[in-house]
Amino acid sequence: MQPLTDNPERRKRVRLTQVCPIRLREATGTGEIAGRMFNRSETGIYFETDTRLDPGSELYIGVGCVPGTGAAADYACLRARIVWCRELADDAHYFYGCGATLYAGGVSSEPAAAGERRRHLRRAFRKPVQLVDENAFYKGVAEDISASGIFVKSGKQPRSGQSVTMGIPDKTGRMVMVRAKVVWSNGAGFGLKFTRTL
Predict the structure, then answer these.
(1) What residue ranges define each of the domains in the chain, with the CATH number in brackets?
(2) Mean pLDDT, the chain, as a whole number?
């Protein structure tokens, strides 16, 4: 990633150019919003979107590109708070440009613990998992896990609110069966909340 020209704004954290598509989801909502990130620092991000976002609103930002190249990469989820959102010129590709503060940790495979309201911290957990819903059996790869939930990438995209039975390998490789509910789902994967162990 290349720093923007000589940090003329004299920011504490230098902004780095990083242009790639992103997916936004307000922390209180269920719908997804498309956008494009143009630059970021350790503590902030600038992106453009067609949806006006109110300052102070919290959201998750899904990023799926390699920093500095824009090439496809593992999905990362950032938790952020909108600081400002302004209407762009008529010739811009999107309607609004927004600046957001990232919760501590910047780009990571999970939202950072310092700003999270999660009860249980997530940790990386790249393991194959098996899932069964009312219609099918399918496989996926867990990306992170906590005591209360898990993030899974899969070719199948279950709907939010759906219940699934899931096999998760323990340290010995034995499958532990759990029931879970799909909390959110998009093209990058889905988040599950554990409801009970079977």
Answers:
(1) 16-115 (2.40.10.220), 123-197 (2.40.10.220)
(2) 78
